[in-house]
Design a protein that fits this description.
A: 400 residues, 16 helices, globular, disordered N terminus, B: alpha/beta, 6-stranded mixed sheet, 32% helix
Chain lengths: 400, 514
């Protein structure tokens, strides 16, 4: 017989021992452990500066645009493609916003919407060639990277354009107002943090109970409790820290919403399911009646829109659009997604993983800068971390 | 004449399968030796043992070649002794020139620098020997398949071949090219080159072969000397002569009078070679509750027919009409085909059937996600319930529905593919080689599923290269050869001999080629 199955028993609830479970899910937990370990290391090494309220707030603001783009990139990579143009598109959209708002006096809200539409069209234009003409995405988006770098220079005529109206800057540098009128700290922010953390905890418990009914629980209770307890405490602690400074940044709210929406789309909707299927085995997906061309096209359009949003945030943060904005960001974004466990060949990866990957990169940048490590060694270390993460992935897969 | 090659008691096992069982083969120097047998009988495995693809030590038995016991560790060892194999799928690099291909891996070079003048001179010589007038600089992808086959042979000649093995060399050639190739083999024989010819086309074999070895189920069943005059019927009997025991579930077919699907004048052209028609004017029908079989050799066009019907997943210039349950249907995309009530379970489950890195739970509803969703949102409870239901019903041996399909055995993977299509609830289900590469127990289970589906009123079309299987589970058979339906018979009146005879006698009639 050629059966290679491990458990032929039809027992419906094969809850594994914690150790076996950990071994088979090393990837998902490994990345979370890695983030915690890296944060602990820098917290000690920087003498406690890393987790100071002002630094945590900065960390979020500095990495928001990378995280926004990593969410879109995760979808592109899961679908089996790559987008090298996001840094240039982000710079281009920032320039477009500056020209519209500063030079042409278009109301910033309208300009923002036009910019996101422009980003979606740019993404769609690239996705069109990838999806319908099967031109490799590497090449299409490499071309896009050059084109939009050039167009940014042209649009700005080589100059920096700024400053933006104060209202526009609030996207990136504003904080939510304290509706509860706290004295020492932003109480409203803390309340939101506690509510969100509780909401996530309740959702997790409900999901587990539902899974229990159909007999598809795999995670041992100890893991479930430890993981969700940790997330609960971490979220409350983080919102406490930020509330202690100036409150939750506006961009944090945007980010959190995007993470929630895209996590849901990727894991729970038919569209998400189909994107994983075309990345995992496009031929099998097409023979199951899935329109892989349209999905690929939409994935790129979505990436363009998110790159545009990131461009707005970045321009607002710098308060000026420069011709060099976004240069090289595509590499940070792609690295974050791969550190977060996505597979180069498609079909594998999670939104939360990509976000954690982006935070790992962000914490390392931030921590090493505090320690005064030069940009030269920072680059080397980041490169080695990316390599190590992917090697870990491949070895882990071979064993499994 | 002396014996050039003697393979003694070769046994080769794969996990769970004995592919070759004590096979002996003896080839005389200077003869053309034909190796015949059904698909999967073990011919190709035997040739892979001989050429070192399966290295010494991975099989038992001896290879005696030119009077010495050989232990080939790879193709380069066997090639060094002048044993060259030309596979059914040609191994040429399409974008390199003819000359570059001939000397690939064996370049005419001094200290790593290629001598192009010598390369082209030698290539031109070899091309003349195989009767090709092309310039050595011609790119291979501009040549037709027949000429590419000749380039392969020129490549073999460049290596001082003593024993040339041709695996179904004419399966994709038209009549004229086939004749040329056979003439060339006879010419080689005159020059003292020994050949082993693997072929299904008995008319070709009786034309050129001196000796025939028949392989069946991994064993050499007979050795026939053509000079004594062997009838084709005799060869066919030896090829298929096994009895049907209870490897198939008992059936009580309840075929209904209504037609489930009817296809008229279906024609399909090869997607790349617009001059090759792979399905030619095929018309057929299948009734509700009926299990219909399509028999034929590999390359007959059966898979191409099925995939072109299923949302034009294969081919170009598709013409013809199809109707399901009496109304003409649009099958132009996979989605439309599924919605029209058609499903197709592929012969290659790993490449076309499953998302291997995904779990059973995620694979089963893939063709009908609407069935487990509320609007856009997948209902995970419903999904798990569906996956569990099919896991139980088809007895998919797995730790749970969360097991990744890559870790399942072939039979269980096939059951997941079947589950996917059962959940899509089609009226007509096409199963392409549903039991390829799976063990006997799982086969029986799949046959049982097919029987039960038919009993519930579905129409099932089974494509299979295993004739006993078709005879065991179908109600009616079509025989396909070279893109055409060349015969139709109720299974009750069919036999392996009759099917093989239909194929052989229809094959390559003069004037039949494109």
């Amino acid at each position: 017989m050629t059966q290679t199955t491990t458990n032929v028993d039809a027992s419906p609830v094969p809850v594994k021992s914690p150790l076996t479970f950990l071994r088979s899910h090393m990837r998902e937990y490994g990345i979370l452990f890695a983030l915690i370990a890296i944060m602990a290391f820098f917290q000690v090494a920087t003498g406690g500066i890393l987790l100071k309220p002002v630094n945590i707030t900065n960390l979020i603001l500095q990495n928001s645009y990378i995280i926004i783009m990593a969410i879109g990139m995760l979808l592109v990579i899961v679908a089996g493609h790559i987008d090298l143009s996001v840094g240039s598109v982000m710079g281009f959209v920032g320039a477009l916003a500056a020209v519209m708002i500063v030079n042409w006096d278009i109301p910033y809200f309208l300009a923002g919407i036009l910019c996101i539409i422009a980003g979606a069209i740019i993404g769609a234009a690239q996705g069109f060639w990838v999806a319908y003409f099967r031109i490799p995405s590497f090449i299409v988006t490499l071309a896009g990277m050059l084109v939009f770098k050039g167009l940014t220079l042209w649009l700005l005529a080589g100059q920096s354009v700024g400053p933006f109206p104060a209202q526009f800057q609030l996207i990136a540098s504003g904080f939510i107002p304290d509706l509860l009128g706290g004295e020492e700290m932003n109480l409203f922010s803390l309340v939101i943090g506690v509510l969100v953390a509780s909401g996530i905890l309740i959702l997790a418990i409900r999901n587990r109970n539902e899974a229990g009914k159909t007999g598809s629980i795999e995670e041992p209770f100890s893991f479930f409790a430890a993981k969700n307890g940790l997330i609960f405490v971490a979220l409350i602690y983080m919102s406490f820290l930020m509330a202690d400074f100036r409150g939750l940044p506006n961009v944090f709210i945007v980010m959190a919403l995007l993470i929630a929406v895209y996590s849901f789309v990727t894991s729970r909707t038919t569209v998400g399911r189909r994107i994983y299927a075309i990345g995992g085995n496009e031929k099998a997906a097409m023979l199951s009646g899935i329109n892989s061309q349209r999905l690929t096209f939409l994935t790129f359009a979505n990436m363009g829109a998110l790159a545009a949003l990131a461009g707005l945030v970045f321009a607002a943060r710098l308060n000026t659009a420069t011709p060099k904005a976004g240069a090289g960001f595509e590499l940070d974004v792609i690295a974050a997604v791969f550190i977060g466990g996505a597979s180069m060949s498609g079909g594998v990866g999670t939104v939360v993983g990509a976000v954690i990957g982006a935070f790992i990169m962000g914490v390392m940048n931030n921590g090493m800068s505090i320690l005064g490590i030069g940009i030269d060694w920072q680059q080397c270390i980041k490169g080695l971390v990316l390599l190590a993460a992917v090697i870990f992935d491949v070895m882990n897969k071979k064993k499994g | 004449m002396s014996v050039l090659l003697e393979m003694r008691a070769i046994t080769k096992e794969f996990p769970g399968v004995k592919a070759l069982d004590q096979v002996s083969l003896s080839v005389q120097e200077g003869e053309i030796h034909a190796l015949v047998g059904e698909n999967g009988a073990g011919k190709s495995t035997l040739m892979k043992v001989l050429s070192g693809v399966y290295p010494h030590g991975s099989y038992s038995g001896d290879i005696v070649y030119d009077g010495q016991v050989k232990s080939f560790r790879g193709i380069s060892d066997s090639e060094a002794d002048g044993i060259i194999i030309i596979h059914q799928e040609l191994a040429l690099v399409p974008l390199l020139s003819v000359a570059e291909n001939i000397f690939l891996g064996n370049e005419r070079a001094h200290k790593g620098i290629i001598d192009w003048r010598e390369t082209n001179r030698r290539a031109a010589e070899l091309l003349t020997r195989v009767g090709l007038k092309e310039h050595p600089d011609t790119k291979v992808d501009t040549l037709g398949l027949g000429k590419q086959q000749l380039v392969e042979i020129a490549k073999a000649l460049s290596k001082d071949v003593r024993l040339l093995i041709l695996d179904e060399p004419t399966s994709s050639l038209n009549e004229t090219d086939s004749q040329k190739l056979l003439d060339l083999m006879l010419e080689f024989k005159a020059r003292g080159i020994t050949s082993i010819l693997i072929s299904h086309k008995l008319n070709e074999i009786s034309r050129v072969a001196d000796t025939i070895t028949v392989i069946r189920d991994g064993a050499a069943v007979s050795r026939l000397d053509c000079r004594e005059g062997i009838s084709e019927d005799h060869i066919i009997r030896d090829m298929v002569g096994r009895s049907l025991d209870d490897r198939y579930p008992a059936r009580d077919p309840k075929i209904r009078a209504e037609t489930a699907m009817e296809v008229r004048n279906w024609c399909v052209t090869h997607p790349l070679h617009s001059d090759r028609q792979v399905v030619r004017d095929v018309s057929f029908h299948v009734n509700k509750g009926e299990v219909l079989g399509i028999a034929g050799l590999m390359g007959a066009g059966r898979t191409e027919l099925a995939m072109s019907l299923f949302g034009r997943s294969y081919g170009a210039n598709i013409t013809g009409t199809a109707s399901i349950n009496g109304t003409e249907v649009d099958l132009s995309t996979v989605r439309r085909a599924i919605n029209a009530g058609l499903a197709y379970a592929t012969e290659d489950r790993k490449t076309f059937g499953l998302v291997l890195d995904d779990t059973i739970r995620r694979n089963v509803p893939l063709a009908h996600l609407e069935g487990v969703s509320n609007g856009m949102v997948v209902d995970r409870d419903k999904e798990a319930a569906v996956a569990n239901r099919y896991r139980d019903r088809l007895n998919i041996k797995s730790s749970s529905i969360e097991q990744e399909t890559v870790n399942l055995s072939g039979g269980n993977q096939q059951k997941v593919v079947l589950s996917k299509w059962l959940f899509a609830d089609p009226d007509v289900l096409i199963l392409d080689e549903p039991t390829r590469g799976i063990d006997v127990g799982a086969k029986f289970e799949i046959y049982t599923v097919i029987r039960d589906l038919a009993a519930s009123g579905k129409a099932i079309i089974v494509i299979s290269s295993e004739l006993p299987e078709l005879l065991g589970i179908t109600d009616r058979l079509y025989v396909m050869n070279e893109g055409r339906f060349v015969g139709e018979m109720p299974t009750a009146q069919a036999s392996q001999e009759r099917i093989m005879a239909t194929i052989v006698k229809s094959g390559s009639r003069p004037g039949d080629h494109t």
